[in-house]
Design goal:
The structure holds two protein chains of two kinds. By secondary structure, chain A is an alpha/beta fold. In chain A, 43% of the residues lie in helices and 18% in strands. In chain A, a hairpin with a 2-residue loop joins strand 11 (275-279) and strand 12. Chain B is globular and about 45 Å long. Chain B has a domain at 16-151 and 214-261: TIM Barrel (Alpha-Beta Barrel). The chains are: A alpha/beta, B alpha/beta. Chain A: Keywords: Amino-acid biosynthesis, Aromatic amino acid biosynthesis, Lyase, Pyridoxal phosphate, Tryptophan biosynthesis.
């Protein structure tokens, strides 16, 4: 748990204008009360199960296992959820929270559009007004998701300030929230932002790892050696790792986007190559120059294209609880294609980064050992991008 | 007493309202910023706020965001902004307050940032994303350097918070006029006025209203509640569209209005 100021060790906190502070304190109070409220938990459970499709399966990837010819590989199938990724877990939780707090509107930011679509979906479901900030460049790259949000009745607002990408969309969403804090709840999309957001998003995502913990008992998995998840802001990874944070014998690996390579300037590997600083209200690892100006990240995967990372991941890095690695666009694309061909599953480009790390760990894995990968989302949304870079197959 | 407190207390004692002008360092270039600072002082600005351009200014509206983006594109750096202060100090003793975001300070190194700016000659520091709960990050360093860390209160601040912030306040108290970002035009200051009333119960410090004051009418409406007004986005807009002369005439008209009303 974070301390009373929202710090995980040195990381986290609430570096926000005074205008927002009372709203963050109010949110924390409401959330603390609801966390132990049985009717809230029941409601949450109902929508996760009946609407989103939880629990997701822990699928034994027999063909992929055979492909490597080493230990067993299981996939945690978050890609099977409604709207196609783990983002819906958080969106449902926070929309219910907003409703209980009496807020009529929700605002969110989105990069690839997955979180935006999840928010637009729950807004439609619960009759909330919704507006989503999205970088101008991302709107062009992700036309399909923009249409989905609009179809669901959400207003998509293009962001041209700064560099017109996810970090600027996040800043704009926070600015909108600051201005309309009386009737609006801000649903941040990852385990980032000022306290209590990293804690709230983690709590709504930790069901991923909790289910896995039960499933490994049912499957009699004994030697679980690795758990691997991709990291942008880090919500699926936090959801996956959190329940295993004290299991020292299991190696947890978070895979960042190395883009065109971590020795180039075009990557999104905040934990691997960044240094701690403050962005969007939290102290955490960050891609920045010597003056503290934020450096625009790069990744083929829009969902990993963020210059910061959740503060609890920074804490996990410095305390050695999780190892953080990075794989390139090229490696991720190969994994994308491999899973499609071998298992008949098209993974999201984000999740493909986690899959790509199998190349590194499988040769070191024994036959009786098990690896679990968080398949955080499906790749339908990435097909346009894949056509561009892979050409006609 | 610092240059800043002295200036504001003197104004208060004489019944005049203070005028604080915000400029983004290095926008459109450092030579223009230097020229504008001196012009603002000549037109009757009592304090100049120097904004250090930051890539992700969460409390700022489109005008100041844009100025920061362009300044950075034109090569603005913290070191050059420190040099700007040194240049201003060659000819002017106008109180200078640096306004910057936490990460600019951390990126450059917090001790070094504050000591370099203090050496160059600043009189105060405003960090809009450093609320009460995080203030210990810089408080000790500012104390050691004898530089006021300016507190902020907002229309959303609760009574408890107003009390805590006002009791700790040094230099002046920055009173944010609305719940939005800088630059949104605002002419009703009743809400922040009530917050200021509250703050005056516990502190005698000068109160300055900022955010959304764009012309004489706005300044005069805000001055009814406060000891000083802060004008930023409107000045930058004038600077963009009409050059230093445009910024000059806006400051002159606000100065005249404030003085007429205090007579």
């Amino acid at each position: 748990m974070p301390d009373k100021n929202g710090k995980f060790g040195d990381f986290g906190g609430r570096f926000v204008p005074e205008t927002v502070m009372p709203a963050l304190i109010e949110l924390e109070e409401h959330y603390d009360a609801l966390k132990s409220d049985a009717s809230f938990q029941e409601e949450l459970h109902f929508y996760l199960q009946e609407y989103a499709g939880r629990p997701t399966t822990l699928y034994f990837a027999k063909n992929l296992t055979a492909h490597y010819g080493r230990g067993k590989i299981y996939l945690k199938r978050e890609d099977l959820l409604h709207t196609g990724a783990h983002k819906i877990n958080n969106a449902i939780g926070q929309a219910l929270l907003a409703r209980r707090m009496g807020k009529k509107k929700i605002v969110a930011e989105t990069g690839a559009g997955q979180h935006g679509v999840a928010c637009a979906t729950v807004a439609a479901l619960f009759g909330l007004e919704c507006c989503v900030y999205m970088g101008k460049e991302d709107i062009e790259r992700q036309a399909l998701n923009v249409f989905r949000m609009r179809l669901l009745g959400t207003e998509v607002i293009p962001v041209t300030s700064g560099t017109g990408t996810l970090k600027d969309a996040t800043s704009e969403a926070i600015r909108y929230w600051v201005t309309n804090v009386e009737d609006t709840h801000y649903i941040i999309g990852s385990v980032v932002g000022p306290h209590p957001y990293p804690m709230i998003v983690r709590d709504f995502q930790k069901i991923i790892g909790e289910e896995v913990k039960e499933q490994i008992l049912n499957y009699n998995i004994e030697k679980l050696k690795y758990i691997v998840a991709c990291i942008g802001g880090g919500s699926n990874a936090m959801g996956m790792f959190y329940s295993f944070r004290n299991d020292k014998e299991i190696i947890k690996i978070g895979v960042e986007a190395a883009g065109k390579g971590i020795t180039t300037n075009e990557h999104a590997a905040s934990l691997t190559k960044g240094r701690p600083g403050v962005l969007h209200g939290a102290f955490s690892y960050l891609l920045q120059d010597d003056d503290g100006q934020i450096i625009e990240p790069y990744s083929i995967s829009a969902g990993l294209d963020y210059p910061g990372v959740g503060p609890e991941h920074s804490f996990f890095k410095d305390s050695g609880i999780v190892e953080y690695k990075a794989v390139s666009d090229e490696e991720a694309l190969q994994a994308f294609k491999r899973l499609a061909r071998v298992e008949g599953i098209i993974p999201a480009l984000e999740s493909s980064h986690a899959l790509a790390y199998l190349e590194e760990i499988m040769p070191k894995t024994q036959m009786d050992e098990t690896v679990i990968i968080c398949l955080s989302g499906r790749g339908d949304k990435d097909v346009d991008m894949a056509i561009k870079v892979m050409g006609e197959l | 007493m610092s240059n800043l407190s002295e200036t504001l207390q003197k104004l208060k004692a004489s019944g005049r309202k203070g005028l604080i002008v915000y400029l983004t360092a290095g926008y459109p270039d450092y030579a223009t910023t230097l020229e504008t600072v001196l012009a603002m002082e000549a037109e009757g600005a009592d304090v100049i706020e120097i904004g250090i351009p930051f890539s992700d200014p969460i409390a700022d509206g489109p005008v100041i965001q844009h100025a920061a983006t362009l300044a950075l594109k034109a090569g603005a750096t913290t070191a050059k902004s420190i040099e700007l202060v040194t240049q201003i100090r060659k000819t002017s003793s106008v109180p200078l307050v640096v306004m910057t975001y936490v990460n600019s300070i951390l990126g450059y190194g917090k001790e070094k940032f504050i000591s370099d700016f203090v050496k160059a000659g600043i009189d105060g520091l405003i960090v809009p994303d450093l609320p009460l709960e995080e203030a210990d990050l810089l408080e000790d360093i500012c104390k050691k350097q004898n530089i006021p860390l300016i507190g902020l209160i907002a229309p959303t601040s609760t009574a408890d918070r107003i009390k805590c912030i006002a009791q700790k306040a040094e230099g002046f108290l920055y009173c944010v006029s609305n719940t939005g970002v800088t630059g949104g035009r605002q002419n009703n200051y009743d809400q922040i006025g009530a917050v200021i009333e509250n703050a005056r119960q516990v502190s005698q410090i000068p109160m300055a209203i900022g955010f959304g004051i764009g012309n004489s009418q706005g300044a005069s409406a805000a001055a009814r509640y406060a000891d000083a007004v802060i004008v930023g986005s409107a000045i930058l807009e004038k600077l963009t569209n009409e050059g230093v002369a445009g910024a000059r005439s806006l400051v002159r008209s606000i100065r005249e209005t404030l003085d007429e009303e205090s007579e």
